[in-house]
């Protein structure tokens, strides 16, 4: 590997990283304004996630507000769980 090939590889790497940084800067600067403009055109949303609670690595509880009603949804792997009885005292 001669010096010119090494220099070309370093220049190509620097150019690629520069383009990636330029795109990242542009997205951080201009993307929030563009996204807000698109969301404003859609109007008022009917569905809103109020709160999320992680139960374990495979399940979570999500409190969702639809219109003016709140619903509690259990998200998981899709298998049915057996009910667990509370310990008796």
Automatic annotation (TrEMBL):
Regions crossing the membrane: 6-27
Protein localization: Bacterial flagellum basal body; Cell membrane
Top-level taxon: Bacteria
Keyword terms: Bacterial flagellum, Cell membrane, Cell projection, Cilium, Flagellum, Membrane, Transmembrane, Transmembrane helix
InterPro entries according to UniProt: Flagellar_biosynth_FliO (IPR022781), FliO/MopB (IPR052205)
Broad class of where this protein is predominantly found: other
UniProt similarity note: Belongs to the FliO/MopB family.
PANTHER family cross-referenced by the UniProt entry: FLAGELLAR PROTEIN FLIO
Protein name: Flagellar biosynthetic protein FliO
Organism annotation: Peiella sedimenti
């Amino acid at each position: 590997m001669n010096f010119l090939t090494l220099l070309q590889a370093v220049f190509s790497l620097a150019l690629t990283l520069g383009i990636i940084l330029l795109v990242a800067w542009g997205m951080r600067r201009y993307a929030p304004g563009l996204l807000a403009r698109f969301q404003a055109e859609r109007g008022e949303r009917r569905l809103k996630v109020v709160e999320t609670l992680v139960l374990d690595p495979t399940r979570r509880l999500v409190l969702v507000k639809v219109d003016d009603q709140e619903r509690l949804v259990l998200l998981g792997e899709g298998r049915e769980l057996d009910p667990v009885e509370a310990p008796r005292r």
